[in-house]
Amino acid sequence: MNAEAQKRAAAVRAVEFVRPGMRLGLGTGSTAKHFVELIGARVRGGLDIVAVPTSEATRAQAMHEGIPLTTLDETPALDLTVDGADEIGPDLVLTKGGGGALLREKIVAGASARMIVIADESKWVEALGRFPLPVEVAPFGAEATRRAVEKAVAAIQEPGRFSLRRAKDGHAFVTDGGHWIVDAALGRIDDPRAIAHALAAVPGVMEHGLFIDIAQIAIIGGQDGVRIVER
User: Fold this and answer.
1) Structure pTM?
2) pLDDT, tens digit, for every residue of 10-54?
3) Of 16, 65, 87, 105, which one is the catalytic site residue?
4) Is 105 a catalytic residue?
5) Which of 23, 71, 100, 158 has the highest Cβ tally under 10 A?
6) Which of 97, 82, 89 is nearest to 132 (CA)?
7) What is the arithmetic mean of pLDDT over 139-161?
8) In order of start, what are the domains of the chain with their CATH numbers?
């Protein structure tokens, strides 16, 4: 199986966890797209669920699929969120935010009783850090915030390289929430909890892409089939 087939296989398995009447969080990204498509087919077949999307892109896809949508203001407690990840560590600590939706993704996951992360086997890593860690920041004072983020990380480990994410037109990438993203290329994150704590304390940081103690189950599609890892 190639990577797309592995993602699809993981999404197919995740659908098995969905029950009628559930309130679902719908993730963002290439793997989550498969899940949203599959859930849409189930809804058209009679499945009764309601969902909260984690991005405008997912909202558009869900509406196209005919999935009933709600908001966290209307439905503040969800049963299950299914989302992808850029990296998954053995303890199910995640790096997320490659698609720029980390703030909404974390809010939705935090409102859910359970989170399932789905991915192809390339996302399973021994230690986080190969994928740059997204840090969502306020546009105001973004360079000062970037420097503060670098200093906070440097107090814990080698700081690596920190760069403002750019859109295709060369301007700053803007999230659905109107924020910017600093990508921290750290190479390896040996203490995710310490990094998460340090980043959360920096003024101007709206959220970071470390998801700790949030995902309970990982469904990994691989060459030899699908495996499930539980925390």
Assistant:
1) 0.95
2) 999 999 999 999 999 999 999 999 999 999 999 999 999 999 999
3) 105
4) yes
5) 100
6) 97
7) 96
8) 3-125+212-223 (3.40.50.1360), 133-205 (3.30.70.260)
